[in-house]
Amino acid sequence: MQLFAGAPASAAGGDADIIKNGSLKTFAQDVLRASQQVPVLVDFWAPWCGPCKQLTPVLEKVVRAAKGKVRLVKINIDENPELAQQLRIQSVPTVYAFLGGQPVTGFAGAQPESQIKALVDRLIQSMGPLGPDEGDDLLQAAQQAAEHGDTRTAARLYQQILAEDPAQPEALGGLARCLLADGKLAEARQLLEGAPKELANHTAITGAKAALALAEEAGELGDPTNLLARVQANPDDHEARYQIATIMFLRGQIETAMEHLVQIVKRDRAWKDDLARKQLVRFFEALGPKHPATAKGRRMLSSVLFS
């Protein structure tokens, strides 16, 4: 981001730095540099925006409750149009979360406090050290982040786990899926091929390998935003829905992926020689028979086939 390279540094520290109003001049210090130490939420708002007036107090409440483990920078887009343009802010409120000087996740529109708190908790866990009793909590946070489509945060958490335990199978499989979601198939294959031999039959590893095979066969799937717009415009655009389902599955958004395929089966069972049902079966194989989503997916499919 060359636009911020020359921004002046400012004094930091103390409670006053937890929540502040930002600008183009202070963005490098308040966000890019600060996020090297703690997660930083950036709230893009405008004085005329009604939902902004609902969201900002919730953000401030959650950030204050974190007691310095996360920061909030508020950007008035009317006063900082260049900044809003560079970060491609299309509507307000929009919130980006920065880690390591880069935006890693975000959302648009007002959100309930519970979802904001869950996001902040994931961000905090991604920065904190891994203690002896934190492995399960960190793994759960990574899995939840992946399920919400936040593969960057999930990958960071999985990497943190693997730094402590390079042979943690769920973290290995989870990180491989994150790489697949980012289109890094070669890196995912290298990671899985380098897994310890004793983990070869672990469901997390076999499932990730099956997902890799799906990704390799699927090829270029297109832009998910455009595909979703196509489905919203025409619910019978099965090709777009099929591609969205595959993308979401590779990202870890398993149940939503299955729901899209079930919709195809419900609307046109014979589409492309029963391709949607066959893809669902492949999802089940990739997850393994004991995965809870497999059982739920089978029930969803059965309710359509035998209704």
UniProtKB/TrEMBL annotation:
Parts of the chain that traverse the membrane: none
Kindly give the InterPro entries that the UniProt entry links to this protein: Thioredoxin, Thioredoxin-like_sf, Thioredoxin_CS, Thioredoxin_domain, TPR-like_helical_dom_sf
Q: Which UniProt keywords apply?
A: Disulfide bond, Electron transport, Redox-active center, Transport
Q: Which CDD domains match?
A: ybbN (cd02956)
The record's section on Pfam families has:
Thioredoxin, TPR_19, TPR_20
Report the residue ranges that make up the Thioredoxin domain in this protein.
Answer: 3-125
Similarity-based family: Belongs to the thioredoxin family.
**What NCBIfam families does the database record attribute to this sequence?**
thioredoxin (TIGR01068)
Protein name, please? Thioredoxin
Record organism: Benzoatithermus flavus
Q: Which gene encodes it?
A: trxA
